[in-house]
Description:
Order of helices and strands: HEEEEEEEEEEEEEEH
Shape: elongated
Number of domains: 1
Strand content: over 45%
Helix content: 10-25%
Structural class: alpha+beta
Radius of gyration: 38 Å
Distance between the termini: 152 Å
Number of helices: 2
Number of strands: 14
CATH superfamily: Lipopolysaccharide (LPS) transport protein A like domain
Amino acid sequence: MLNKKYIKTIFTSLFFVLFVASPLFAEKIVFSANRMTGQAGNSNTTTNLSGNAYIKTESMEIQADEVELSGDNYRYIKASGSITGKNTKSNMDFTCDALEYDRTTKIAILKGNVKLDDKDNDVRAESQIIEYNQDTEIAILQIQIRLTQKDNICSGSYAIYYKNTQMLELSGNAQVRQKEDVFRAQNITLDMNTQDITLGGNVKGKVTETKEPEEETAEEAEAADTEGPAEDVAAEDGAADSADSTGAAEAEKEGAAE
């Protein structure tokens, strides 16, 4: 016979799943983990998932060692330990050490060795903190920033990345490297569509000029063709004249000897 405590535990867990997946709410949550602790069913409660924790909302997928769900209708998601995730709405993948996500504001804060991959635009960003607003598709990067796109390698202390317009704003020892060219300034704006760069404040740069090999014109080619044979003819004529002079000189010597 089951005791009351065991029955209550089963009922609480089942009610938690139904509560999260209820159609009364705009967004449902699917989860799995090796272990779950906490209460469910209250309007404002905290539930902890540990061991291969997995959370899926309508726009986010998160895998981590530990996940905490809290707030009214589990508004807040906190994750820690070996985090990998995907924003299915923005088509962006990420990894980090810690994550906080607000399901209402759609703002995610990623911390610790953050890597963000914008697959739509082939943009890869690394920093220690990235705050991403899913509604506006704007990412704010802080500390040890490195962002790559096409031939651009960008760095600085602070950056704002606009996914929709493909604009990047850098500040704090900002630098953009394009192959052999390097641009430095206090503030740099890069248009990733046109590759136009705007520099402001303590501007420095190094640009390497690449010269294209000059093509030979038709006139130059024709002149080169005519010059070659003319030189050869002149050389032959000179040799003939020299031979004639030598023969004449020898004939004169023989006549004198006779």
